[in-house]
Write a structure and sequence with these properties.
Low-confidence stretches: none
Largest sheet: 4 strands, antiparallel
Shape: elongated
Order of helices and strands: HEEHEE
Helix content: 25-40%
Mean pLDDT: 90
Radius of gyration: 14 Å
Length: 99
């Protein structure tokens, strides 16, 4: 598997551990030294990003240079919150991935 495929597999594994996993959307972009991993979900991220998950990303990509950036929440309906969206981007640098 390639680095991107391994990252996507890790994201899918984590999504299955978190409630409402069918709603998560992922975008993985970058190169061999830097990856931006964007996670988006309707309502909230629901605990998707935690220390354990970031540790798994760190181990998989062989780096401790991980930052959480671009966190945002767009509100939805005033009464039911339908249409709201939360997202965050995990920026991974100094990657030392080993296949």
């Amino acid at each position: 598997m390639s680095m991107e495929e391994d990252v996507r597999a890790l994201l899918s594994k984590r999504a299955k551990e978190v409630a409402n996993f069918n709603d998560y959307r992922f975008e993985v972009r970058g190169n061999a030294k830097r990856l931006d991993i964007t996670i988006e979900n309707m309502y909230s991220l629901g605990g998707f990003i935690n220390f354990g998950f970031l540790s798994e990303v760190s181990e998989l990509l062989g780096t401790k240079s991980i930052d959480l950036e671009d966190e945002y929440h767009t509100p939805g309906c005033d009464t039911c919150d339908y249409g709201s969206c939360s997202s965050a981007t995990i920026v991974v640098k100094n990657i030392n991935y080993k296949e």
